[in-house]
Specification:
The structure is a homodimer of 284-residue chains.
Chain A (H helix, E strand, L loop, with lengths): L4 E2 L3 H9 L3 E5 L15 E6 L6 H10 L9 E3 H12 L7 E5 L2 H9 L3 E3 L19 E6 L7 H13 L4 E4 L5 E4 L2 E4 L1 H4 L1 H7 L5 E2 L5 H11 L6 E5 L2 H10 L3 E5 L6 H5 L9 E3 L10
Parallel strand pairs in A: 1-14, 2-3, 2-12, 3-4, 5-6, 5-7, 7-8, 8-11, 12-13, 13-14
Antiparallel strand pairs in A: 9-10
Protein name (chains A, B): 4-nitrophenylphosphatase
GO cellular component, one term (chains A, B): cytoplasm
Keywords (chains A, B): Hydrolase, Magnesium, Metal-binding
């Protein structure tokens, strides 16, 4: 197995950056106040968090003094909407049943895709609510802080009874780090449906899965050979690049440590690694 | 593979019944107005439904004109309480976090086991609610019509942070038949925790699993060689007997049909089968 190359000084940074036109950046690991740091390079922020829309991210970034345009953000909520519209050509007369937060609804609406499900938030389950709705052509499941039995039962019912009803996940992270604890992620929230159906989803967006990269490449007409994925998590960010023919750079400001990639038989190793995104600022 | 024996006439019934002292009966498949039909034989009703307590079942049976005593009912809610008290010797100073319905709480209380969790029903998730509670020594998960993100996040937190916190399921049915649709079962409701923990539960009660039979045998001091499990579902009832050294009788009044057990390579076959429980009434 080939070894990771460590980027140590300005000369390394310059040679590295010259190799690429586009950098895909993990959102949560962003400590680098980017934007205009690398003239002539395209920066795209890629996040598995489906709870927010791209517009929400622009606002969040503003508070962190990061200037970003909606078109520079690729969230799993938007990726799902993009995939439904441009890859699956989801029929206009059909609608999506959402298990998830408003970020998904906003992005579906922005692509002109009809949806339902959010009105079932915080509702008690009543068997008489489980009734046919042949217009539901897909169930899209992401992180959902309002998950309940009614939503699970309705989603299961549509998937079992509507012919060709598609089952999509925004992402399949089993957990995510909340403030002070580890919370169930979209992969956990969708597990009841996978168990009850005894089948895998038809597609899973989100890092490290292929549909996310395909959508990014298609939308931005990227040359993946001149694209680099930068992030702090091996299982999502680095695997995302490794799985999809994109060079990877691990930054050690997050969960992964140098020893994780230097041990014998490390399961996931990046092409490059460095201490911190912030070091690129030395170039300016 | 040995073949199933079909019970066809009164002579068959008599010879069959003579072989056993105790009959374990699936509750939901009960069409046989039992009780005093088979003098000298012990009848026990065994159900995977954890939503009800044994007392609830006595009431339900009364409405069906079936006389049954609480001690003749073995629900997965009671089995869980029995297992915690008598097998695990669950410490008195600890308590159980319940994901499930009141039947579980009632049965834990009847065995003197402290519990919490039901007050989180229909509550919105707030990150600040996820706080340590070192008294939680186990999470017990069953069917829960009030499942929500708060309950999942709390259960996950206790299982990850409380050392030796035990993870139990009342049963692992992926689905159950509701009126007019297939609903997510306890196996689906527990799937987020299994996914987020990336590990199996420490024990699963309920048919067809061994702990349920062990508890029944221990409580009633049964000779399992003189015990027969009667039910209408191959995967739960018949597998329950087959897995645990108990003779099985399939009745064809439910989901399973004769062809399911007569085909070559049928995965689960009962020792005996007959058209209907009701045929035993011909003996009286």
């Amino acid at each position: 197995m080939s070894k990771s190359i460590k980027l140590c000084d300005i000369s390394d940074y310059e040679k590295f950056i010259d190799k690429f036109d586009t950098f895909l950046l993990d959102c949560d690991g962003v400590l680098w106040k980017g934007g205009d740091t690398l003239p002539g390079k395209k920066l795209l922020f890629v996040t598995n968090n489906s709870a927010r829309s791209r517009a929400d991210y622009v606002e969040k970034f503003k508070k962190l003094n990061i200037e970003a345009h909606e078109d520079e953000i690729f969230s799993s909520s938007y990726a799902s909407a993009y995939y439904l519209k441009n890859v699956l050509k989801f029929p206009k007369e059909k609608k999506i049943y959402i298990i998830g937060e408003s970020g998904i609804a906003d992005e579906l609406a922005s692509e002109g895709i009809r949806h339902c499900g959010l009105s079932d938030n915080d509702q008690q389950f009543k068997p008489e609510d489980i009734v046919p709705d042949p217009e539901v052509g897909a169930v899209l499941c992401g992180i959902d802080f309002h998950i309940n039995f009614k939503k699970l039962a309705k989603a299961l019912y549509y998937l079992k009874t509507n012919s060709d009803c598609i089952f999509l996940l925004t992402n399949d992270d089993a957990t995510f780090p909340a403030s002070g604890f580890i919370a169930p992620g979209a992969g956990a929230i969708s597990a009841p449906l996978i168990t009850a159906l005894n089948k895998k989803p038809d597609a899973i967006m989100g890092k490290p899965n292929k549909p996310m990269m395909d959508c990014i490449a298609q939308k931005f007409k990227l040359n993946l050979e001149r694209t680099c994925m930068i992030g702090d998590r091996l299982e999502t960010d680095i695997q995302f690049g490794n799985n999809n023919g994109v060079t990877t750079l691990l930054v050690l400001t997050g969960i992964a440590a140098e020893k994780d990639i230097l041990v014998d038989n490390a399961p996931i190793i990046p092409d490059y690694y460095m201490s911190s995104f912030g070091d690129f600022a030395k170039l300016c």
